[in-house]
Amino acid sequence: MPGTVLLLAAAPLGRGRLVDAAGVLPVLAAVAPAVLSGTDTANVVELADPLEPQAVLTRLRAAAAAPGPLTVYLTGQLHLDRRQHQLHLALARTTPATIRYTALPWHWIREELRLRSASDTALVLDLHADTETWRHLGERGLDSGPHTAVYGRVAPPAARRGLAEPAYMKTVATLLRSGHRPPLAALHQQALSRIPEETTGNLLLAHAGGYAPGFPTAAGTPRHPVHGGPAPGAVAAPAPGAVTGDLLPGAVAAGFVPGPPPVAAVPGSRVGGAVPADPHTAISAAVRDGRHGEADGLAARYEQDAVRAHGAGSEQALHWGEVRADLAMFAGDPVRSCRAWLAVAEARLGAGQAVDAPAVEAAVDRAHHQWGRIKDAARARELGPALAQLRLRVPGRRRGALENVQRQLGRLQAAQ
Question: Does residue 250 fall inside a structural domain?
């Protein structure tokens, strides 16, 4: 099965640019697609200094939905928006005052990849941070989701003026030009060994997915996210003086939105009589094989178990509601997907989450997107008023979203 590769290099134009992100693309483009992917054949999509976050999201969503392994090589810079203090990947038009509207929210990346398995999904990162963002990462780590393998580094603010070099990604590309892609963990270590001075003091990311993030300390030893002691399985930093960001087993820290619960926390769920190591793997396999009913049935069982164990408004139950909404989309049922996303948004708001919370905005945006794909006018008229009411409360990041719903709903009602 062919793989998919997304090459994304982004940084603001002008004074806000910290790193020459796009400068790495010619080196990556010189690597054979099959080597970039680690598969026999691969499709490669390249985005150089994109302008619009929605355009990046569209490409990312298509890559995440493609069958076969996915590798995203991402070079750029991270910033916090001033309102919510959420991480964003800066794009070409991003300025400090417009981060919320012109940059790509980091949680969009996490959300698009959450239904995939870490065995066939990887992020290779060379990121740079400003002072405020670096402080945030030191306190909270970089959450890329529990089901994505992540390798790379985040560099702190440069001590000298001028553009920083994406040295880590260029080294990775140079190694791959040999024509062989070793396991990503080995490739990561080889890259670090070639540029020890460039990565000293960096946040180093090297994990195969499946865990909640540990939080880095100045000494470079991961600490447990709750009680503050050494995290189980903590490893020493691989570069002198480096801060490690390995994902390690542990509970969820305050302010961190958890991914799906471990299977042990959802009693009674079985696949073929045995508890799967990761139910998302079985669900993803069913979707790839076109067994959409089976995938939804499995997710529904986990949702029911989560409701019984934790309550209907719990993150565990809401996660499985979101999974089922996405499964309906993959099955080509926008009515069911829209209705599910509307229910998730209402549940989050009913649980007291803010109207501009990322998870709330994402649910309403996805409901809006699926509503726009409904071809049955009667069904669209049925769901339109509920979406319009939600848009009044949750306008989202795209200007004119409420007006778009109202205008389209008016057309549908006039056509009756």
Answer: no
